[in-house]
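Predict structure. Input: Zinc finger BED domain-containing protein RICESLEEPER 2-like, 349 residues.
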Amino acid sequence: MDKLQDPTQTKLNLKKESNGDTSVKTWKHDDTRIKKALLNLFVLGELPFKFVENEAFVEYTNALNAKVVLPSRHTISRNVSKFYIEERTKMLQFLSNPKTTIHLTTDTWTSSCQRTTYMVVTAHFIGENWMMHKRIINFREIDSHKGKDMGRELLDCIRGWGMKNVMTITLDNAATNDKAIDFLVKKLPNLYEGGKHFQVRCMAHILNLIVKDGLKYQNYHVECIQKAVRYIRLSPQRINKFKKAMKDCDLQTKKFLCGDTRTRWNSTFELLKSAYELREAFTEFGIRDKSYERDLDRVPENYDFEVVTEMVKFFEKFKTKTEFVSATSKPLVNLFIREVLDVDIHLRK
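Output follows.
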C-alpha cells in the first residue's frame, strides 16, 4: 500500500503548542528543505563533517524519517562550500546596493601565543524586515597596527564588498585609529558631510580607559591582592589548599578566585570581587602554605579588602554600563547622552 503513496503528498501532523493546546499542521517530505537544514546543523553547530556518518546520528535520522538519505562527509564538505558562496553572493548584492546604509565596527589584536596581529570587521545594518543585523565581513591577519596600514585594510574590505553607503565606523579610542580614519576619509567619496561624523569612538572602550586610570590610584592595595590570587592559582596544589581553607572557614559557596587579564579592567574587577567574597580564607591559606608569606612582598590584610570593597562598589556601575553599551541587537545611540550624564554624576559623588 505504501508503494502507491505519492512522496510529495501533503500529510496531516499534530503539533503541540506552547500553551498546551494541540493543532493540526500540514507536512510533506521535502528533500531541499532537509538538505538545507542539515547544512545549517553542521555550520551553526560547528560539527565535524564525519559526524554525518556517525552510527548514532544515522540511527536517529532513520527513526525520524526513514526516507531521508544522508550524504557522505565529502558531499557535506562540497555542499557547505557551495552554501557559503551562495550566501556570500546574496550578502554582496545587499551590501553593494546604494540604498543600503551600513555601519561598521572593527578591532585589532595580537595573539599572545603566535604574536600574530588580526583584524575583524563587522557590518551592522537594518534588513528588509526592519530588524537589526550584523555580519562579520572580514577576518584576516594584518602586518602591522600602523594607522595607514589599517586604513588600507579597511578600504580593501569596503571596496571588496562594493559598499557605496558607509555611514559610520566605530573604533577604539586610539591614535592609530585616528590615522586610519584620516586615510579612509580621503579615499571614500560621498561620505555624509565630508566624513565629519564618520568616526564613532567606542563608548565601552572609553569606559575601560576611565576605570584603568582610576585603578592606578589604589594600585598598592590592588596589586597586593592580585599577586596573592595569582600565587594561589599558579598550581593545582595551592588551589586545593585554598579550597580546604574555604571549607575550614565555612564559606558555603561554589565560587572561586577569578584570574585577570592586564588589558581588561572587568577581569580585574571580577578578581577583586571574588577575592573580597573569599577574604576569610586567605589567612587560613597562609597557615597551610608556608611559602605564601615568604614568596610574596606582602600578603593581603583586612584593610586591603576594606579599600577594595569600596572600589568594587564604585566600579559596579561601570561594569553595568559597559555591558549595556556593548549590546548589538538594539539601537543605543539615542540613549548615550543619558548614560554619559549618569557616569558623570557617578564620578562627581
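The first strand starts at residue 11 and ends at 16.
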